[in-house]
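All the exercises in this workshop are built on plain-text protein records. A record pairs a protein's sequence with a compact description of its fold. The structure tokens are whole numbers drawn from a learned vocabulary of backbone shapes. Once this layout is familiar, the rest of the handout is easier to follow. An example says more than a description, so a record of this kind follows.
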Amino acid sequence: MCAGRTRTRLRTVPDPMRYAAEPAFVLHTRAWRETSLLVEVLTHEHGRVGLIARGVHGPRKQQLRAALQPLQHIRFDGVQRGELAHLNSAEAIDEAPRLHGEVMLAGFYLNELMLRLAPRHDGVGMLYAIYGETRARFGLELSLAWTLRRFERDLFDALGVGFAWDSDGDGAAIDPAARYVLDPEHGPRRVLGDTGRAGRLDTATGRALLDLAADREPCAEDMPGLRRVIRALLLHHLGGRGLKSWELIASLPRKPDDGAAIAAQPGSEASVS
């Protein structure tokens, strides 16, 4: 080699990631620039994926825009060279459930949890499955509170942070007559002594935990406490930063005929979230 000559190393450019007929659920869509959309989807093989959909306005793109609405089940083609993939095409696999009122809020809650907790570019097949199952239940006349508690239980398992609901952190069987809180590291922890009304509101009955373990809907009086301890556990895994859906639900006025469906005051009950 001649003196003074340096060898140039060629940088290898990785091949782009290609998606072909990739099934996904749409989690969120927002406008980007004048004619494009930023879309977040949940896939089976690749986890959460961000997409750029360019040039989606105009009458010819109406079908594409409809396919990119939240909760829609789609099949898409795209190419990923960076953090976001460029969407080439997308089509709806089925018709998204038509949600109204409280169920629509539940759909918002479901998607927000996935946006915050589902890993990007890391497929968790169980997440995709439980999302699809919960979405299907939204279209049925089932207890909304129970549908969400089942989803949350399965979400913890899918993320690898779940635990047994029929035994406490020390391995002792859950006492149906006792009250419990949920420790993020050790699971159910029995609350000793009389907690009073305030304490009862922030604890779950052992009976409710056993029902959850058996995939059996708890009685109505046990649901509020179960919701609260699960929310506290979710807040831990959310890094202490709550959800917009929680704020939205809390801001809604409570009507006399709403029953216990939507909470407007601290301490009132909501099946959503």
Remarks:
- The domain at 19-96 is CATH 2.40.50.140 (OB fold (Dihydrolipoamide Acetyltransferase, E2P)).
- The chain is about 35% helix and 20% strand.
- The first helix runs from residue 62 to 67.
